[in-house]
């Protein structure tokens, strides 16, 4: 099991009970990855099923949501395949704004 800090910024906190920061324990039979974390978030943290589409599209993080692993773009860290370590900080920031 790995414990990570997860941040929901740029208005995403609205679908997470208006709480921006969560400490999350990710358990997996192998070393947990960001994909495992995303699955956990969808299954356990998004209370309203209608809000899943705000966060996920085609099985991955929706375009327009900047995803950082320890303040580095997740694409540079391996994306969903990044193996989580205790103390990692995973940030999801919406860059989409309504008008």
TrEMBL record:
Ribosomal protein listed as a keyword: no
Pathway of action: tRNA modification; 5-methoxycarbonylmethyl-2-thiouridine-tRNA biosynthesis
Chief localization: cytoplasm
Cross-referenced InterPro entries: Beta-grasp_dom_sf, Mopterin_synth/thiamin_S_b, Urm1
Modified residues (1-thioglycine): 99
BP GO terms, sorted: protein urmylation; tRNA thio-modification; tRNA wobble uridine modification
Annotated family: Belongs to the URM1 family.
UniProt protein name: Ubiquitin-related modifier 1
Organism listed in the record: Zygosaccharomyces rouxii (strain ATCC 2623 / CBS 732 / NBRC 1130 / NCYC 568 / NRRL Y-229)
UniProt gene name: URM1
